[in-house]
Amino acid sequence: MKGKKRSKSWSVLTGIGVVVILLLVFLSACAKPSPTPSPSPTAAPSPSPSPTPPAKPIELKLAHFMSPKHVQHTQVMVPWAEEVEKVTQGRVKITIYPGGALGKPPDQYDNCVTGVTDIAFGLHGYTPGKFPLCSVMELPFMVTSAQAGSHAFWDLYHEFPEIQAEHQGVKVLWLWTHDVGQILTVKKPVRTLEDLRGLKLRCPSASQKPVIEALGATPVMMPISELYDSLQKGVVDGTVIPMSAIYDFNLQDVAKYVTLVDAYVCTFFMVMNLNSWNKISPQDQKAIESLIGKSMMEKAAKAYDEGAKLGFDVCKKAGLEIYTLPSEELARWKEAVKPVKEKWLASMKDKGLPGQEVYEEAVKLCQKYNQQFK
Fold first, then answer.
1. Is the overall model pTM greater than 0.85, yes or no?
2. CATH number of domain containing 313
3. What's the rounded Cα separation, in Å, for the pair 246 and 307?
4. What is 236-293 written as a DSSP string?
5. Which residues form the domain of 226?
6. Beta strand pairing status for 58-63 and 119-123?
7. What is the pLDDT of residues 168-207, one digit of tens each?
């Protein structure tokens, strides 16, 4: 009896379990599926920034009064301008205006100071009174080549603050001298002091005026750009001039005689307007600094000495008579111009300038570099 009851109870429990399982399966099937999470919306890509336009290059004007054929134009200024553009990656560009296009020869320095031009080449001697101590290099019979004169002048500039002060208002890029001056005449050869008497000689600078007078000729102040026509028309009988300039200005076409005396040199400047310099970035200023100074002085001086050789060549080809003054006669010339030095020293003393000190140092430097650049 008891076994039947236990069997019946187990059947009931089993049936209930089956019902529960079926119910769970049914409920599970009827349940709503969990929604799949939506992907986060992708942000629209930001537009690429517009490229910054390159800065406008700084355009500089370099002015000089020489011809485009001149050795300083072809061998010095043009390559230098190209190198400046290269080292600044085109951020600084220089346009050269030769032949006095932006001003007469005596106006070059002041035009640079006032900003008419950005960079200027010129002669110190074209503006008498502005560069008194610089004129020591133009005293007669000091040097024997452009390289000797240029090195001496460069050293003087750095040794004497008074010479530096004569270049106020600009940035000095480099200073130098031309090759030594000779005598070029049209109708009459010059072989003695007496041959100079009565001749009208073009004078390149104020410093050479008393020298020409001491030698017995009449000085005629004139920029070299006017010399060809003046020789051709008889306005002057000749000129004191470096051999390089004979080549540069084709003067062999209008003259017949050259007398070699190694009488003098003139000094030159290459300067830059301060405002023009200051608008250049420090980075580009540093790059340009590597292209100025002593290295450019040397390059400019060497170009003049090489130009002197060209001058000799064209004179020979044109049939000019080239005469070297004998040492005995040259000694007479040197004696004749001694008062020029004394007057210069007195003039510097009257101005309160250290003329004696500058002169003595100039003589030492010229002797040193004359030996070095024989």
1. no
2. 3.40.190.170
3. 9
4. SSEEEEEHHHHHHTTGGGT--EEEE------EEEEEEEHHHHHTS-HHHHHHHHTTST
5. 58-372
6. parallel
7. 999 999 999 999 999 999 999 999 999 999 999 999 888 8
